[in-house]
Amino acid sequence: MTTAIYSHPDCKRHEMGDWHPESPARLQAIEDQLIASRIDGLLEYREAPAVDVEEIRRVHTDGAIQRVKENVSALAASGSDYYPLDADTMLNLHSWDAALRAAGAAVAATDAVIDGEIENAFCAIRPPGHHARPSESMGFCLFGNVAIAAKHALDVRGLQRVAIVDFDVHHGNGTEEAFLNDPRVMMVSFFQHPFYPYSAVLDSVPHMVNLPVPAYTKGDEVRRLVLERWLPALNAHKPEMIFISAGFDAHREDDLGQMGLVEADYAWITQQIMQVAREHAKGRIVSCLEGGYNLSALARSVVAHVKVLASLD
Prior knowledge:
By secondary structure, this protein is an alpha/beta fold. Helix content is 41%, strand content 16%. It has a single domain (3-309), classed as Arginase, Chain A (3-Layer(aba) Sandwich). The strands form two sheets. The protein has an eight-stranded parallel β-sheet with strand order 2-1-5-10-9-6-7-8, sandwiched between helices.
């Protein structure tokens, strides 16, 4: 059994301007660090297919889908470089293809894990997804890659219960909204608060254990919350598969957040998730890249995460 890395060159062609922190350089930094760490040869690399739009429709409205597709088409006709969906989420000529590959990676990895071809997977993809609401793209995100994959596992592959773990520094508001009324999905997260996207903090929905923490929270406090809040909820839910929204912008070197995690914290969190997956889900995990904007910290953290997934550390 192996750990697979899913990606596609189209994911590097989507870009939002030289000034934008969510850049193609993020994927290149990850690729370079996997090679430098000498674990790339121990992983299976798979090319992400383009997702069928019907899969996106399980999570997003036709209006949200068409706004991305049609405005990318309009760019080709107008000769413009970018179309702004909001103040910090832009489209370029390649954004539609990149979004299809990003969601396609998550769905293909889900199928491969359920079919027993691989034990788990990390999807090195962009654009990210956890802010994309069912009705609109936002926050660097076009479509909810993890939400789409989770829906596929439930509605197409017939799983009864899944879990989504989100350790990005920002609240995964889009994922939360997609499953707010679906108790088949247990979502657990921590996130800096108050902070973008300034979404409501829910404390009365049993299958949403999304924990706000103040700026400058360090790894020891996050580990306590994982042990005291996440793990009891996950073990009670007994997920048949676990999806990870793997954002690494809670790292202490990342200027887009103000938290204090380091690589060892991401490795430890991954170990806890894997233990839950071994106990309840036959080890089945699909992890998808979300945030992480300091290139060095991002790449080192991804390697720490993947080493644990691949049982190399």
